[in-house]
Amino acid sequence: MSSKSGVDKYVGRGLGVVAVDVDDDGWTDLFVTRDGSPNLLLMNQRNGTFQDFAMDAEVAYDPNGMAKAGMGVDAADINGGGRPDFVMTAFNSEYHSLFMNPGSFPFEDWTIPSGLGYLTMQDVGWGTHFLDYDNDGIMDLLVVNGHVNKVVELTRTDVTYKELPLLLRNDAKGNLHNMVDTAGPVFHNKYDARGLAVGDYDNDGDTDAIFVCLQDRPVLLRNNVGQDNGWAGFQLVGTKSNRDAIGSKLTVRLGDRKLVRWITGGASIFSSHDNRVVFGLGSRPGPAAVSLEIRWPNGLTQTVEGIKPDHYHKIVEGSPNPQ
Predict the structure, then answer these.
(1) pLDDT recorded at residue 318
(2) Under 8 Å between Cβ of 221 and 208
(3) For residues 236 and 254, what is the distance between their CA atoms, to the nearest angstrom?
(4) Cys-Cys crosslink for 19: which of 139, 213, 220, 265, Cβ 3.0 to 4.6 Å?
């Protein structure tokens, strides 16, 4: 399929990919980060082929026209616009990148305005993932870092081999704040981290995480904050669509807010994630019930009413009642 889809012509060192519907046309697209090669934004042409629009979107190169050492990548709506925005990790002195999706090309480079550039200037980033760690309905960001040169400290005074992970809280406008003072002791320790996976491993309604390190034990991060707020969790099962429902768009309306999430393919690097989707509902007491709109990968739109918060719900494509 590489030849038939047209992706085999894009030669380069691809390290990260996330599959998500970039332009909300119901067809899944691909954002590919590449190491020393321009990034790709492969838009689905609705006929089994893809075309690269990274230059049009201004995500192929940095503002100086250089290709970054792109590693990890993820997508989520971080400013309430209802469209997927993108994060990409990179090498030290390059900054990790944040791209806002305004609904048309070009994207807005939010690396410096968000604070991400300042926070990551000295880091070599690998795994990254958007998550609403405190269940306030706003997507935050987790990044793990680690250099590739064990003796880098012999020549650099500002860069270390092992590096701090970052938990960055989003103010709902895309401005990111380092939560190192309250996130726990892991965020005060340095690691040679690589892969990062997220998911609710203890099924208590908030998103946990685990990352792996070179020549060291994995680090499991149990979330002890998110359960303080309300939440609703969903596991989608496709019937006409693919079984894991990858490519689905989920929307919950919370007062005058519209919370949009996607079940993506790929994301981060060296890792896969819990496909369940958790919507943070904010402070208690929250709504007695919420409604969920699902656009399945095959184009079917389904609305499920009367969903009870603080529970996981299994929804089978086409079935009117969640389990």
Answers:
(1) 86
(2) yes
(3) 20
(4) 265
